[in-house]
Amino acid sequence: MGESGGCCPPMDLMRSEPMQLVQLIVPMESAHLTVSYLGDLGLVQFKDLNSEKSPFQRTYAAQIKRCGEMARKIRFFKDQMSKAGVLPKDSLENGTDIDLDDVEVKLGELEAELVEINANNDKLQRSYNELIEYKLVLEKAGEFFSSAHTSATAQQREIDSQQVGEDLLEAPLLQEDKSVDSSKQVKLGFLTGLVPREKSMVFERILFRATRGNVFIRQTVIEEPVIDPNSGDKAEKNVFVVFYSGERAKSKILKICEAFGANRYPFSEDLGKQAQMITEVSGRLTELKTTIDAGLGHRNILLHAIGDKFELWNLKVRKEKAIYHTLNMLSLDVTKKCLVAEGWSPVFASNEIQNALKRAAVDSNSQVGSIFQVLRTKELPPTYFRTNKFTSAIQEIVDAYGVAKYQEANPGVFTIVTFPFLFAVMFGDWGHGICLLLATMYLIVREKKLSSQKLGDIMEMAFGGRYVIMMMSLFSIYTGLIYNEFFSIPYPLFAPSAYDCRDASCSEATTIGLIKVRDTYPFGLDPVWHGTRSELPFLNSLKMKMSILLGVSQMNLGIIMSYFNARFFKSSVNIWFQFIPQMIFLNSLFGYLSVLIIIKWCTGSQADLYHVMIYMFLSPTDELGENQLFPHQKTVQLVLLFLALVSVPCMLLPKPFILKKQHEARHQGQSYAPLEETDESLHVEASGGSHGHEEFEFSEIFVHQLIHTIEFVLGAVSNTASYLRLWALSLAHSELSSVFYEKVLLLAWGYNNWLILIVGIIVFIFATVGVLLVMETLSAFLHALRLHWVEFQNKFYEGDGYKFAPFSFILTANEDE
């Protein structure tokens, strides 16, 4: 939304753009072109002035139905092209020069032609598949009949040879008997076809039971799957031959074949006719194959012709449909000659909108121009931040918590820096940071190519936040240099270590075994700490205190932002009875703790800060003894404790009573409140309607303030503790990295075996990428997200606004129907 070029924001991101409610009165003859030009501009969010009407009662329902039908045809073409593997070509035309009527006629003709080609192709393909099956039946059944005939002939010869030595007197009688028997013989009928292989056994069993065993069945397996003519799917089938006696048995067999989806084909016992039928079927198959190939070639030519214009037609239909949807949101005036539109637009866009209206009136040859006027309203405007490709991802992170209220201070300004920095505090390793940076630079360098491709869900998210990840990796390199960790290995980059060992065994001892022989290490952590027994206690103390300092600083920033919000909305109540008590309470306790941490670092004192803070509440009058860090510390603590206790009722009690007094004074002699009094009064006016005499629920205001006060007091403690996740995740990342290095890489190196070393390197790479660069990155990202949403933004950010959603063809073109 908004500008997309450049790296640095040329706009003020602190507050959303000033918005205005505008009214447009547009003549009917220029309405279509006006909405089209405003869609190209993309800076007007239209309001639906026909919300009481159903979609079918609106003015342009017929046009939308027409566009919907064209969109259906385009979806049909897209489906056909995807099946045929034809890709639509990118069109360089903008689609405004083509006429919608011509597109509709062309789409209708092409659809009819393509449907006809598909129908003919389906018929031909069905016939082709039937002939394939018929040929298989002729071959397999022919083999059965041929083998049966050969077997019967051999058996008859054997019988004849056995009858040669029989008595001649009995022969005539036998011949007479045979002649009698042959006249009484019943001729067996038979059926041939194919049945799915998985149903063949059940098919045979059902036939046997239905005919009470008066059938003879033979089945032959077809090695290759065949395409079923009815379903068009490949299936494994068997050729069957069923011999039966009588018409009743035949009708039963036919019904069973139909129920099992068995395809039947005619077959002749005559071997000559079988050969003739095989020849005929083979010839017809050849002819059908040629015809089908010619039809597919014609279909591909047609689909390529559609693909050349597909994007152009698709864009045109989408635009027209969006235009008519927008026109349906406009209301007809009394004369039925003009359309009235209302919508939100940024103040800076007034001239551009008026120029678009004038251009539309001229291009449509309208005798009357459109009227543009600004309306006064108490309705809360939408929130609009002009972002670019660098700031849009950060703004999306903020908007995921809640869209800023109109002209409320935007946390995104600070999140641009604080989010990647807090991530890096938990992910401090400049080796891992370089890996992240290289992966991100690949996305940034190839962003033009990747932005036009369809990526997967996870890759799409990573590509959208590529600049955020770049900032995260740069800050990770910075904090990694401070922690002096490169895949958990320390390097004396900026100078040699300031300490040397007193003797050979000092690496196993604490810092007592080290002697300072040089100046302090200039930047970051001295590499000598790594590997010593005191490394973990030292880093724990350092990172824990650093987390508290960062947390208190960010929470103070959030409270200061609430001051700027109150000042911007001219709410003196929030300044005196919300901002000031909150600053006093937070800094009397945790601001004081931060000062103690800095004093302890500067003086090298051995004071126990836990003891100081606990007994500041439990025994504030006791002497501090060895835990005293500066003169008059006890007095200062008593004053701070008193201020913290006093600030709680200051947050709770005055504000509800002052708001009640303001409400009573406002409604004594006037109906409407001034727009500039307080943000609360604005909220009440906006929600109470236009009459301004809404009920003031003092109990609700008081309970709301009570909840807000309790939440802040408890949150000051819990939120400060929540920032200790910076220390915990930083420690976990460092220790995991150290374990992978020592227990995988160094362990494999110690075996002096090339195979084990290669396996160890591979395991180390996969563990580093999978756990540290993927899972740890995601974990640190989510924790940094929580710190911003809960600990930082809840100090000042209401986030109850709604986003500016202008009518724009750019957004329409990016949508997937």
TrEMBL record:
Parts forming coiled coils: 100-127
Pfam family, one: V_ATPase_I
GO molecular function, one term: proton-transporting ATPase activity, rotational mechanism
Keyword hit for Plastid: no
Gene Ontology CC terms, in alphabetical order: vacuolar proton-transporting V-type ATPase, V0 domain
Keyword entries, A-Z: Coiled coil, Hydrogen ion transport, Ion transport, Membrane, Transmembrane, Transmembrane helix, Transport
Membrane topology: Multi-pass membrane protein
Principal location listed in the UniProt entry: membrane
Domain of life: Eukaryota
Keyword Transmembrane: yes
Listed transmembrane segments: 421-445, 466-483, 546-564, 576-599, 635-653, 754-775
Cellular localization per UniProt: Membrane
InterPro entries: V-ATPase_116kDa_su (IPR002490), V-type_ATPase_116kDa_su_euka (IPR026028)
Entry's family note: Belongs to the V-ATPase 116 kDa subunit family.
Known function: Essential component of the vacuolar proton pump (V-ATPase), a multimeric enzyme that catalyzes the translocation of protons across the membranes. Required for assembly and activity of the V-ATPase.
Protein name per UniProt: V-type proton ATPase subunit a
Organism: Brassica campestris
Organism lineage: Eukaryota, Viridiplantae, Streptophyta, Embryophyta, Tracheophyta
